[in-house]
Each structure stands twice: as C-alpha cells, then as structure tokens.
Amino acid sequence: MSERRFQRIGLVFHPQRPHARGLAEAVAEVLRETGREPVLISSEELRNGALVSGWDLALTFGGDGLLLHVARYAAPAGVPLLGINLGRVGFLTEIEPEEWAEQLQKVWEGRYWIERRLMLTAYQIREGQRRGPYPALNDVVVGRMGLGRVVRIRAEIDGRYFTTYIGDGLIVATPTGSTAYALAAGGPILPPELKNIVLVPIAPHLSLDRAVVLDEGARVSLTVHTEGKAALTVDGMGDYPLEEGDRVEIAAAPFSACFLRLRDRSYFYRLLAARLRRMVADEDAR
After folding, report:
1. Which residues span the domain enclosing 43?
2. What is the Cα–Cα distance from 119 to 173, expressed in whole angstroms?
3. Same domain, 52 and 75
4. Is-contact 92 69, C-beta < 8 A?
5. 82 and 198, same structural domain?
6. CA quadruple 124, 174, 254, 216: dihedral positive or negative?
7. Catalytic hit among 64, 158, 246, 282
8. Is 64 annotated as a binding residue?
9. CB contact at 8 A, 250 and 70
10. Is 3 within the bounds of a domain?
11. How confident is the chain (286 residues) per 10-residue block, as mean pLDDT?
C-alpha cells in the first residue's frame, strides 16, 4: 500500500493512435469529477517542451514507444509513469483500455507498487564540445547510417581501453532495453529492476561478438572511426550524426524511471514467456 496523493495528473496521448485522444478525454472528465486536476497533452506537445515537473503522475495513452518518450521527461522530474495500452506489445504499459476505471481506482486506493528502472545518460563529444544530455530508458546505439562501410568503435570502460568493435554498431542497453533491440541482436534478457548495463555488438566482423554485462556504476566511452556515415540513436528516436573521432559517453542516469504496477511482482516472466511464444509463432507462420 502507498500513501502517495495523485492530484495533478498529466494525460499524454499518442496523436496517431485511434481513440487515444477520446479515451484520454473520458479519463480526464472522471478525474475532474473526483476533484483531481488533469492536464491533457499530446506527445507532440510534450516534445515541444511542455513541463511535467508539477505533475504527480504521468498517465499515457498509447504503446511502449510512447512510454519511452514520456519517460525522458518524467523520470528526471521524479514523476511516476502509468501506461494504458493502445499498442501491440504492451511490455511496459500496465492497463488495458477496457479496464481503466477499475484499475485507476486501485491506484487511488494505494493498491500498487513502484518498479524502479535504470536509465542511461549519453553525451556526444566533438572537438571538446559536449552535447546532451540524452536520457535513455531502453538503449543508446552507435552505428553506421544506411549501407556502406563498417564502423569501428573504440570502447573504454571506466577510463581504460576494453576493445574495438567492428561491424554495424554497438548497443548499450539497460535491463529494460535487453528485451528490445539488444535481444534481436543476440543479447541476454535481464530482469527489469537490475542495475546492469549491457553491451551488444551489431553484426560484428572480426571483433568481439559476445554481449558483455557491466555493473551499474560503469562508465562507457565510445570513440567512432569510420569512412562512412555514423549516428547516435537514443531509444530509437533521433539520429544524431557522428563524425570521425566523435566520442559518446554513457553512464547510469542519476534518476530512475518509476512505473506504477498493479500486477504481482512476477508479472515480467509471464509476460516475457507470452511474448517469446508469440515471436516463435510469428516466425513459424512465415
């Protein structure tokens, strides 16, 4: 049980998801009737700089991608997250749209627990100038852009040379991201509340081809060497061009993404098993 009071609630909807705005408006009306203060906003408006620091809760109407996006703003401000699933996978979201009234009542009654997930902070360094920070809940990816030559990435851990990756790129993932792009690239699956960082090479060529699990406190420095085009991608959003000699510094963020959970604490393994079965079924159907 929790005693936290949720008064000012941000309702963030995905503008391209059918029925997302309508459902958000319906929830907002109920919140007003119960004396709460809803703030209705689209994800595009949030991207344009809307502040979340005054919210007690961020309630999202979309899929996992929307939650990733909102977490970049909510987590630094200490605002917990709760997702209503209008997407396909629903790995991060908590509530199905047909049950929102019942599930939100559990929240108001304090029948939830907080799941804290590691986030990363990345900076791009070019000729001594630092750009960022770029917060990530899933992963930070340094890789080549389009077809062309491989990229060479000199990796240092805690200030000491580790190895040079040669291939399409490198994924630096959180436990949350271990079930996303990192999993597709052959990385391990980590429980969401672990504090480790995972390095997963993408299509490595004559270089280290195994994933490496690092401690939470590890600091990763990646220096790019390429004759083609390379980019930094954070949670699958935005491609920040990288030039020869650019460096990307990555470490655990000083804040966590806090998710309100209504299911029991073993939910992750059941959800993971269901997703893996679906992946196998989809592959067999091809």
Report:
1. 8-112+262-285
2. 9
3. yes
4. no
5. no
6. negative
7. 64
8. yes
9. no
10. no
11. 79 92 97 96 81 91 94 94 89 94 95 96 95 96 86 97 97 96 95 96 94 94 92 91 96 97 89 73 58
